[in-house]
Amino acid sequence: MRKWHPASVKLSRVDSTGTDTEIGFEVRELRTQQELEAALQIRYEVFCLEQGVPRNEERDGRDRTGALHLIGLIDGEIVATCRMVFAGTTVQFSRLAVRATARRRGIAAALLKKADTEARARGAERIVLHAQTYARSLYDQAGYFPRGREFVEANIEHIAMEKLL
Predict the structure, then answer these.
(1) 13 in helix, strand or coil?
(2) How many helices, marked H, and strands, marked E, lie in the chain?
(3) What is the pLDDT of residues 64-98, one digit of tens each?
(4) Which end of the chain has fewer beta carbons closer than 10 Å to its terminal beta carbon, N or C?
(5) Strand segments (E) across 10-134
(6) Class for domain 25-127, per CATH?
(7) pTM of whole model > 0.90?
């Protein structure tokens, strides 16, 4: 069991539209198969190569059927992604990954805001997720609260969290 920690610490502001006011990024739903493949590549880089998650655990078969994928782009290049799976009025938020060169710029926070918007638009009442414990403050700041105790998933410490919409 290990805690994973990112290396960089640069911060910037995100405006109310989800756009980073200093570097200019876009957050939106992915549109093409090519964008899905790019998003899956970012997840592979972050989860498998950086954090040591086995590829068969990262790819759980829920990406192509019924999932909503959001992406973050800088200058047209996909640098971040997350996945939302809807089950009635609950959304499972997962697979939030930001390329190392794009971290600490507010993209993850903007993806969380966009996820809230998309979930509400589709009638969801709550979002649940498994947060890596090193990133818990990101989710705390976005209005999530813990559900239960810490646990190990893919050999990384996590905590279940929830947000009511």
Answers:
(1) coil
(2) 4, 8
(3) 888 999 999 999 999 999 999 999 999 999 999 99
(4) N
(5) 25-29, 67-74, 77-87, 90-98, 126-132
(6) alpha beta
(7) no
